[in-house]
Structures are given as C-alpha cells and as structure tokens.
Amino acid sequence: MSTKDELYNVFLNNNHTTKQEKMLISYNLNVINSILKRLKSNKKKIDLLELGVGKGYFAQACREYNETGEIEIKYSAFDRNKEMLRQLTESDKTIRTYSGELPKLTIKNKKFDIIYCAFVVEHLKNGLEVYDLINNMKKLLNDGGLMVLFTPNALSQRFEFYNIDYTHQYPTTARNVTMAFKDCNIEEVKVTKINGLCTYKGFENQILRVTHKVLFSLYSYRLFSAVLQPFYRTPLYDLNNFFYRVFCFFKEENLMFVARYNK
Questions:
Q1: Model-level pTM?
Q2: Which residues make beta-bridge pairs with 260?
C-alpha cells in the first residue's frame, strides 16, 4: 500500500539530463547570490534552512557556493519525503535534516538566518495554511532574517497551474501571498516575477529578462507538438515531453518573495 511518504517519488526518479542539471545548479547559484545581497548581514557564517528539497539542486548550489563564496552557508533541510532527505545526506553527511508535514515546523532550539522554500506553498490546502506556514517560519528566524518563497504565478499560468502538478491546491499570486505576510506582521516584502530559468546566467539582468519574455511570448508547447507530431511522437502528458519541458524551463512565470523579519 502506498503512503504519503511516497509523494513526489515520480518527480525524484524522473531524471534531468546532465546539461539540464548544470543549468539548474547554475540558476540556483544566482538565486543564492541574489538572496545573500539582500540579507544585509556582516556574518561570515549563516544558517540556512530549505523547506522542500526536490532533487537537491539548491543544496548542491550551496555546496558549490561554499567553495568560492565569502560567506559559509550551513545548510539544513526539511521535507516530508524521507527518500529525498536520505539522498541529500548520502551526498553530504554534514547536512542536518528534519522530517515533517508543513505548515507545521517542528524544529526546536534552532534559529536560522534564511529560510528558503521553493514551490511548496502552492501545495498547501488553503490560505490559512499559508498564514500558518509564514508564522511558523517567522518563529525560526533570527532578527533581520529572510524568508524566501518561490511560487507559480497562478494569474499568468492559469490552468497550467493545475496541469503542471496533480498536488497543486492553493493558487498563489503576488497579492494573496503578500497579504498573508502582512497579516503575520511582516511588512518588508519584495516580489519579483521570474520567467522560467531565463535568469540563470544573470539573475537580475533586466535586459535579458525583457528580451527573453519577448522571444518566448508566442511559444506554445501544444502548437509545436501538434506541428511536429509526425517526427516527435512523445505525448504531451509524458513527463519527458520536450516541448512541455521547454515551457517549464523558459516560459512559465513564477514569483519570488523575499521578506525580512524584524523583531
């Protein structure tokens, strides 16, 4: 009998190519550099907690950053999927892991400078759970610490918000997530729109962002798949469909929330 612990095993076992992995790690390195610039801390060693570890690309980017960066990142991980946590610690024995179910965060006697949570909020049941999650994250932050959330932009993705993942429940937007932050007395919130991985070579390069958006404005994975069906027969619902992966990597619009906790 299957259990909820097995959720996302299909995602974990659906491997990216080596080139895609390098691109995703490079993208996450740029995310890390962007976050650290906003931390406004003189610390040379920071504690970072990731909620929802996925395939471990963000953790790998943290390790690569530590090889050359000016700040040492002490990385910890929280996830419901024990296999994902096991694979993390298999590759790095220094990682401290926590197993549990969000929005509850059962971590005692530990504070963090950054809590990073990518593509998790949309899996919560409703806005009240989003509120609970932010409140629980706040309790684990040091003064001046950052909460960083990545979510889909449901307004631009429309039905793709549900099509991309069968466990998506809460349609996240810049407005409704920011409102939850404000109700948790988090006033300093910045929201940035991110189109796929267009920023992986220049996270805050506005010219690159605009150029990319124009180039992909007319891209339709359905149209390309239909036109090229005689040569490419992988169905759209297949997890490895090339045209849908192009959409996910380069066109779908997501949101990055960076919120500072001041006691």
A1: 0.90
A2: 146, 188
Distance (Å) of CA 216 to CA 7, 201, 202, 207, 228: 32, 17, 17, 14, 18
- How do residues 156-178 score in pLDDT, each as one tens digit? 999 999 999 999 999 999 999 99
107 vs 99: CA distance, rounded Å: 10
* Domains identified in the chain and CATH numbers: 4-196+254-260 (3.40.50.150)
Helices (H), 69-153: 82-91, 127-139
What is the enclosing helix (H) or strand (E) of 113? strand 112-118
H helical segments located in the chain: 9-13, 18-39, 57-68, 82-91, 127-139, 154-157, 160-163, 174-183, 206-215, 221-227, 242-250
Q: Which pLDDT tens digit goes with each residue over 40-96?
A: 888 899 999 999 998 899 999 999 999 998 899 999 999 988 888 888 888 888 899
